[in-house]
Specification:
By secondary structure, the protein is of the alpha/beta class. The chain is 21% helix and 26% strand.
Length: 366
Amino acid sequence: ESLDVAELRLRAKNFPIVETACLSEAGCLREVQAQFGVEVNDTFTLVEVQLTTLHSVAFLVDIYGLAENRREDDIPEHVGMCYINSDTLRETGGRIETTITSMKYQPIGRLLADYLLIRPVDGLDCDFSKSPRSLWSGDYGGLDVGHRGLGNSYTTAQTCSNVRENTIASLKDAVLHGADMVEFDVQVSADLVPVIYHEFTLCVQTKTKHNGEIMLDVPVKDLTLAQLQGLKVHHPSEKSAGVKTFPEAETGDTNHEPFPTLETALCHVDEDCGFNIEIKFSQLFKDGREEQKQMMEMNLFLDQVLKTVFSHGKDRKIVFSSFAPDVCTMLVNKQNRYPVLLLTSGTNNKYRSEERRVGKECRSRW
């Protein structure tokens, strides 16, 4: 008997929990999988499995069908099946494809599924029996949120901040100007320290062999905290727009220096100010390109952020946000203390028409 089988027998009482949902407006809530699963239609189908040891599990996918003239009490017919072995789930996320066979072992189709492996955070004490993150009072009003602290400092707009964005000075200045909450961007250095910075890359200026100067792009994740804070670095926009100076940074005040740690922000910014911690992680573009290649493994990345927030967050009001849906999914499943927001941007006719409709209703009520 192999070790894997012995371990599986010992864990028989902790059988995997399978929940399913049809991601439509009416059926988006997960429920424990019924006997014949969930009906697959034109919407996305979600299957969530909670288990303790992935390497000792294989997934059996049964396919059932119902005739068009079926009655409500008809039992679905078992038409096919396929297996998904855990050794095919080698990456944190990806797509699997396998053959569906009939009950006579003849190929009748293919199963394609996107997957995401979410691992618990070692040492993180989180009680999932109750969740405070959904407690939202109906009398909460709008919040004044400082973007990157006191604002974006690398645009040509007249309202561009003269304090370097995503620095402790920028966050503190936003608080002094009355911000209820500050938003800032977090990435993780090569030595696994969460740092505050917006771009995936920074620019390091160096000499060419002909004694010219050139700026080289370097991924944030490839440099240690000491390197990020010790090198003279530039924002990527400075390659085309020219080097921008911040006089306060020349005084030696570390509050104005780039790449402050998340821990520093949690410990030195007024605790009455809330934090919107945006997780910077690569997204998949519509044309199939990655926003940023060769990112740090997502579980490892998020674990460093969560450990820091849980250790130093205290009673501060904190929300997480990200443009990356998988990041939001992971944050929801790894912890339940803080709310998670999925960020979106772009033009959508649906929301413009909705705004017009709501506006008409408001005017008619007044």
